[in-house]
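Lecture 7 notes: from sequence to structure.

We start with a single chain of 157 residues. Read the sequence below before looking at the structure.
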Amino acid sequence: MPSAEFVQCSAIMHRPPTHLYVDSTVHEAIELLIEHHMYNVPVVDRNEIFVGEISVRRLIGLLLPVSLSMEMGLKNTSFMRETLVDIKHRLGVVSKHPIAPYIATDITVVHPDSPLIDALMLLYHKYIRIPVVTREDGRLVGAISLITLLRALESLE
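Now the structure, written as tokens:
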């Protein structure tokens, strides 16, 4: 029989969450995204305080010619011819740069004591993974995704 108390995010969150540091490089971010098959990664400072996320979308922007990645950049690319060498060159230029300028800081989070249903609604409506941060000091303590939930449900059997 289900418990009468609501389930908190802390009950199923993945800990410790995979993350990067603000001073990590673009190269380190790409390696982590590839290694963990992730589309975005939480970013913390050296005190583990949540700062935001770095996403594949932001990194793809680094691979584009500047004329395309600018806010009001070109929309028609039919005249352009790109090679993998061109793209690799652009990546090489920024690979040692810190990720700080590319971090999205307006990220929705939940807290360990937040109702799990809140995280599920966020996953349903928009997000792939939700960072779990402490209310007191904003430390990153976990993450919740559909995979996290499915693993928790599987363990009930």
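The beta strands are 20-21, 40-44, 50-55, 129-133, 140-145. Keep this in mind for problem set 3.
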